[in-house]
Amino acid sequence: MAEIFSTVASVSAVLEQSIKLFERVHEAVKRQKELPRLIWEYQSVVSRLESIVNLVREEDALKTPHVGESIAQIHDVGRGLKDHLEIMGSPQGLVRGFFRQLLHGKSLWNKLESIMRDLESAKLNLTIHIQISNVELTRGVGAAVHINTVTVEETNRRLREIDGEDFQLRISQLLEGRPRNDDGTVALSKDNIAFLPRQGSVADSGETSTSDLTPTDGASRRVMGNEALSHSLQMNTPVGVDVWKDLGSVVIENNKAMDGSVQWNYPVESVDVFLAAIETMRK
């Protein structure tokens, strides 16, 4: 794990270099119709991604194995982007612009578009794995598990600032309307624990994994009355491992997905399958 996250600083540097190279390319193409706008859009994507990577760099609770895999993927794609932008912004690239494109067609732009699609896909993987991270879970007395609301809310604030209101930790849904202890924590019920994906750990002297929190004494889970609207994605399930398989009962009814939305109401055991489905939605 440490080896994976040792590349975070390198990823951030590569993305920062790409942002500066986008500015050089923009200067080279500013007289060509539509191209400057496209360059700014791509640069904005890279800038937001750099902010997300820096947040992972600063927040240890987000450094889960799947987040690490996504960071490694971004590192590979980001290096390819930087190298390609260096070519596009060089005297042999777009500075000669129009006449070069007459000879070579749109190959430079087609390759940039392909790289950006790969980067968007890597960004999507990263944001999903961040959202399902179990940030700041702590084990209390006995088997009780609590969420540190201060850390979760601060992380959510930073996520929303980077990528909009929908970018937040899924675990924060468990905080809504629940009483808080004097220390700012919220206690979780067995059904709450079943809701959690196995993406993080529960901090105590034994460093208990969330895999140890699966209820096995006949607890139940109800997924009822949810609505997904306006091309949204609603996740009402664990992702990665079926932590509901040992529940006494699971009731799923009266849930709706409308207006091009997608709703998940039963555990998705494979993260890869889940991400593939998301990628299909985007096409």
Short description, anyone?
The chain has 283 residues and is α/β, with parallel strands linked by helices. It has helices at 2-5, 8-29, 35-58, 65-88, 97-104, 107-131, 149-163, 190-195, 271-282; strands at 137-139, 145-148, 185-188, 201-203, 208-209, 220-224, 227-228, 233-235, 249-253, 256-257, 262-264.
Protein model, in words:
With 283 residues, the protein is of the alpha/beta class. It has 3 domains: 130 residues; 79 residues, no CATH class; 70 residues, no CATH class. It is 49% helix and 13% strand. The chain is built from 9 helices and 11 strands. A 5-stranded mixed sheet has the order 3-2-1-4-5. A two-stranded parallel ribbon has the order 6-9. Strand 1 and strand 2 form a beta hairpin. Helix 3 packs parallel to helix 6. The two termini are 32 Å apart. About 7% of the residues have low confidence.
